[in-house]
Design a protein that fits this description.
The complex is a heterodimer of chains A (265) and B (263).
Chain A (H helix, E strand, L loop, with lengths): L6 H17 L3 H27 L8 H35 L2 H5 L5 H7 L7 H18 L5 H28 L7 H12 L10 H10 L2 H12 L6 H26 L7
Chain B lengths: L1 H15 L2 H28 L3 E2 L2 E2 H18 L4 H9 L3 H5 L5 H31 L7 H26 L8 H15 L11 H8 L3 H4 L1 H8 L4 H32 L6
Antiparallel strand pairs in B: 1-2
Helix pairs in contact in B: 1-6, 2-3, 2-6, 3-6, 3-11, 4-7, 7-11, 7-12
The chains are: A mainly alpha (265), B mainly alpha (263).
Chain lengths: 265, 263
Amino acid sequence: MSRPAGPIHLARLHFKLGTLNELQYRVNFWVQLLNSALNLATGLIAIAVVYNQTDSLGGWTSGQLLAVLGVHVLIGGFLKTFVVPNMWSLIRDVQEGTLDYTLTRPVDSQLIVSIRQINIWSLIDVALGVGVVAWAVTDIQADPSAGDLIAFFVALLCGAAIVYAIWLTAVTIAFKAVDIGDLMQILNGVYEAGRWPVTIYPLWLRGSLTVVIPLAFAITVPAEIISERIEGWWLIAALGVASAALAVSRLIWKWGIRNYSGASA
Amino acid sequence: MRYYRAGMRIGFQREIQYRVRAFLMLFGFMIEPTIYLVVWTSVADAQGGEIAGLTTGTLAAYYIVWTLVRVYNLAYAPDAWEWRIREGRLNEFLSQPIHPFHRDFTFFAGAKFVWTLAWIPVAVFLTLIFDPVFDWAVINVVGFVIALWGGFIVRFLMLYALGMINFWTTRGSAIFGIFIASELVLSGRLVPLELMPQWISDIAAWLPFKWTFQFPIDTFIGRLSPQEIVSGIGFQAFWSIVLGLVFVLVWNRAIRRYGAVGN
């Protein structure tokens, strides 16, 4: 009983608490459903308008683009459920000086700031994303084997790890500049760039989205795996990038709290 | 009038303190049009350099001016009304002799000048990369300045009136979601309306959205005749009056309902 809870147990407890809390507000479900449906609808309209004018966008068919949209919505759902709410409380803590309470707790500070909040209604996006991917797979008449599905799932996990690392790193760096609310909007804008396959972008943008902010590995690669556009070794690359991203975010987090001096007193 | 000058100066002064922020925000803004531009340029290239009469150069011009129009589109957001009402912040405005509309409007108007300065490097960067083609005459530039501010007034009134919903419900965000999605499709923000199916442009003709987005852009890049520019400004005036009346009507009812929730 006196032993401190392990990280997984702690995360489970936080998620359960957050879920129970949110479940009190059922209307939020409908509001979120409407917003998610609208967001998906505009994505579908954009694809429809493009393929109304052409058959292939930089070598991508409409079915393959649908897969990209599906993964974008799915990973976006993960981001909004688990990552963004935590980043907002982290920002609030930094601004109000209450981060000290977290830093003095006996568990790992990065773990705590990453699991405190959950917005379960955004799981709707995850569900919608899965639906769109399934639709895309039927549309391209891909016939994924069990191995392909596992590869896709692993690629999605890598994608989730990558976006988490990107968000945490950006927010940590922004410790120094106190008006970081805008940063979240900019990150949102950057995330929108993942809605289209990075291969259609000009080199400078593609390069930034592959190396600096590796959204290419978070969204385009899983979509290419499920729509059978690329070879399996890309999965290894995605695993490598995800591990590197997590490691970098860890280092930067350590650096961030070392340099952090409470703004409160 | 004197209040308007002072209010705009406050907005300007406040924003000029946060130059880096303005620049970062614009960098964020740049991503959205760059994506559209890249998508449509590659579609146009695949079709021999032109779609629906739009060349790649015109598309580039369209989305570069898009960024400036987007800056002028920024207005007091309906969600901010929710916060203002929920936290009882409205009280401090109500106890002042001047209507909060003037305060918000002048604040945003003044901030535009700072944002325009921050926009210049973004525009230069995009121009160097994408080779836009403009077809300019004096009337376009003059018309654009009017259309830009006209678009701001229309959108400001639209959002301000929409914000009034928060006096009746705490679930306003669902309605704003619908609003933003419709605007994206019907204003020319996603793509110029010519590229949309005919029925969508038909609907757009009856709504205020396109006068805040596509109209100022088209004015600047020289796709409109002088007559079209003048009639477009007329439409902006028409919508400003309609939306202004709607706002006054709703405001009078809203304020009677309002009982401070704050402390």
